[in-house]
């Protein structure tokens, strides 16, 4: 795929960085956004031989900053073909009655509001050009509950349903919307969830072959390279080492 302008949020690590590498081919223009500008600069060094790169130090929770970033794009990067709404995080795994409510706010602001803002400010250009593709990164946590998933899963359920509702609003245009729901994938995700506790983070993947960031980038590539009349709505993928558990049942001890 060449000649495309691709806006990737959360490009400084994990899935976002892998997507940047996947789409860094001659003729493509990449807009890479995240808060850690040093990580973005390293990626730019690595990829600028292959694609034109525009970096944006951006916190997706900041509505005005997102608006300013989209409105302030250099002319050559204005016509966005693909928006990958990837920036996101989980914080903690405590039950709802013990959780730090600040963590809930951060997840809602990033995973829900960040996706809303990026979509809202990129979409008008796509609609006016009658072309474009929004790829939202949800999670298996969107549909499958687990202990401690409380608000994280709720934010990803929002991403899934928002994606479907966008399709309804865009009927009659050639703008596509897809939602990817990955299961366990080894990135910085668990390090962030466990607030820097590397041992706890490593334990999540121990003895398994988890999905990789490259698996998700390949999924994004496949979804976005379908013929223009084909819209992949929702795609769930998991490691072969992950599946569902039985219902949990509490039994009184007699
Ligand atoms: P990583 O922690 O490796 O990467 C997360 C990215 O999001 C980083 O680039 C980070 O950049 C960015 N980000 C976080 N907060 C903000 C913010 N406020 N503004 C801008 N960028 C932000 O995790 P993954 O790559 O695994 O996660 C990517 C997405 O995939 C997330 O939405 C996550 O929920 C989802 N996901 C992850 C799964 C997994 O098991 N890994 C499975 C299913 C879904 P920076 O800190 O520099 O701002
Ligand atoms: C990340 C996958 O299972 O940790 O969305 O929620 S999980």
CATH superfamily: NAD(P)-binding Rossmann-like Domain
Task: Give the overall pLDDT as a whole number.
Answer: 98
Tell me the Rg in angstroms.
18 Å
> Any idea of the CATH class?
Alpha Beta
User: Which ions, cofactors or small ligands are bound in this entry?
Assistant: NADPH dihydro-nicotinamide-adenine-dinucleotide phosphate, 2-hydroxyethylsulfonic acid
| SSE pattern | EHEHEHEHEHEHHHE
The largest sheet, given as strand count, sense and whether it forms a barrel, is:
7 strands, parallel
Residues in β-strands, percent: 15-25%
Order of neighbouring strands in the sheet with most strands:
3-2-1-4-5-6-7
CATH topology, what is it called? Rossmann fold
How many strand segments?
Answer: 7
Helix- and strand-based class? alpha/beta
Question: Globular, elongated, flat, extended or rod-shaped: what is the shape?
Answer: globular
Distance between the termini: 64 Å
Counted up, domains total 1
Count of helix runs:
8
DSSP helix fraction: 40-55%
CATH A-level architecture? 3-Layer(aba) Sandwich
Give the low-confidence spans: none
């Amino acid at each position: 795929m060449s000649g495309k302008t691709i806006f990737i949020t959360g490009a400084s690590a994990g899935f976002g960085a892998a997507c940047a590498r996947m789409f860094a081919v001659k003729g493509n223009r990449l807009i890479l956004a995240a808060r850690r500008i040093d990580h973005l600069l390293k990626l730019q060094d690595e990829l600028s031989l292959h694609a034109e790169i525009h970096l944006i130090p951006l916190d997706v929770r900041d509505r005005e900053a997102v608006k300013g970033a989209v409105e302030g794009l250099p002319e050559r990067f204005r016509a966005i073909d693909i928006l990958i709404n990837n920036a996101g995080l989980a914080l903690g795994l405590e039950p709802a009655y013990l959780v730090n409510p600040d963590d809930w706010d951060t997840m809602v602001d990033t995973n829900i509001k960040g996706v809303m803002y990026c979509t809202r400010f990129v979409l008008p250009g796509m609609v006016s050009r009658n072309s474009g593709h929004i790829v939202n990164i949800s999670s298996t946590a969107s549909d499958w509950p687990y202990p401690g998933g409380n608000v994280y899963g709720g934010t990803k359920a929002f991403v899934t349903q928002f994606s479907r509702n966008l399709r309804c609003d865009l009927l009659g245009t050639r703008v596509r919307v897809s939602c990817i729901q990955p299961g366990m994938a080894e990135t910085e995700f668990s390090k962030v969830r466990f607030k820097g506790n590397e041992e706890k983070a490593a334990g999540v993947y121990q003895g398994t072959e988890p999905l990789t960031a490259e698996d998700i980038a390949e999924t994004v590539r496949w979804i976005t390279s379908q013929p223009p009349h084909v819209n992949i709505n929702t795609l769930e993928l998991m490691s072969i080492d992950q599946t569902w558990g039985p219902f949990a049942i509490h039994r009184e001890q007699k």
